[in-house]
Design brief:
The chain is mostly helical. The protein has helices at 9-33, 38-45, 49-78, 98-111, 125-149, 151-154, 160-191, 201-204, 209-215, 217-226, 239-265; strands at residues 3-5, 206-208, 233-234. It starts with a strand and ends in a 7-residue tail after the last helix.
Length: 272
């Protein structure tokens, strides 16, 4: 079975680091937010109680910020500066383009049965959205988190009500991020007909050529025209690796769905 490479090992490691750290931050953040509920106490017990949750949340938050800056550095060294700015606006770039707007409208038309399916290239518009959402999410959560991590010091430079506002901004952005990842991202990534039961591309780094020819025909045709398609073909991962990916992937999904469901079920406890 022919497979085409979509992600490098470095990119897959970045995704793995983000996935694990986001899960820990979600769990510890919800444990603190629901600290006065039985579920919050139960969740906090995995991290050594309320104080342990706070320490883990701060440490992993700093780790996420560090990983984010490493990724930004990685992006900068991967840019072809001699061909800048054209080098960052091509079809292999994750920067939004006007073509993405047209594909959004065409995709909506296809969903409604009014138009043909858009011919996606290497990146679809929702993948670009997911990528850049991390940037503003990290900036908002990281910025507010750093200020809130040292409230006594921060209060020397700003009034207390600002800290209260920042706390709510931090929580609202976190809830939006968890809702998007646990519902929309999971559905698009794993529950669509072409991806079910799980899209392993971020684990394997490659995808079946027949599948990608159907989902991203413009990309495959472009590589064929450039004569680089054969150079992007790779072998399938061993079966043992694929089984491991499935087990780990579904363990993460189950854990995230557990947080989502219990966060909804126990929301009344926040109002008591």
């Amino acid at each position: 079975m022919k497979r085409i490479k979509r992600f490098t090992p470095t990119q897959r490691v970045f995704h793995l680091v983000l996935m694990l750290s986001f899960f820990v931050q979600s769990a510890t953040g919800l444990a603190r937010m629901y600290g006065e509920t039985h579920w919050g106490h139960f969740l906090a017990s995995f991290f050594g109680g309320y104080s342990g949750v706070l320490n883990v949340h701060k440490l992993v938050g700093i780790f996420m910020l560090a990983a984010f800056f490493v990724h930004v550095f990685y992006v900068f060294i991967k840019i072809d500066w001699r061909g800048f700015p054209k080098s960052v606006y091509g079809p292999d770039s994750l920067l939004p383009r006007w073509e993405d707007v047209g594909q959004v409208l065409q995709h909506l038309g296809w969903i409604l049965g009014l138009k043909e399916a858009p011919r996606f290239d290497r990146w679809a518009y929702w993948e670009k959205f997911d990528y850049w959402a991390v940037f503003w999410g990290i900036c908002i959560l990281g910025g507010t988190g750093l200020i809130l991590s040292k409230p006594v010091v921060s209060s020397l430079y700003m009034p207390g009500w600002v800290l209260n506002v920042l706390l709510w901004i931090h929580r609202i952005e976190a809830i939006l991020a968890m809702g998007h990842v646990f519902i929309i991202h999971f559905f698009i990534g794993h529950l669509r007909r072409h991806n079910f039961p799980m899209d392993l591309v971020m684990f394997e780094g490659s995808v079946d050529l027949e599948k990608v020819s159907h989902e991203r025909p413009a990309w495959v045709e472009r590589l064929e025209k450039q004569g680089t398609l054969a150079g992007n073909l790779v072998k399938s991962e061993p079966v043992a690796f694929r089984v491991t990916y499935y087990v780990f992937g579904y363990a993460m999904i189950i854990g995230c769905v557990y947080l989502l469901v219990n966060g909804i079920v126990n929301v009344s406890g926040l109002l008591e």
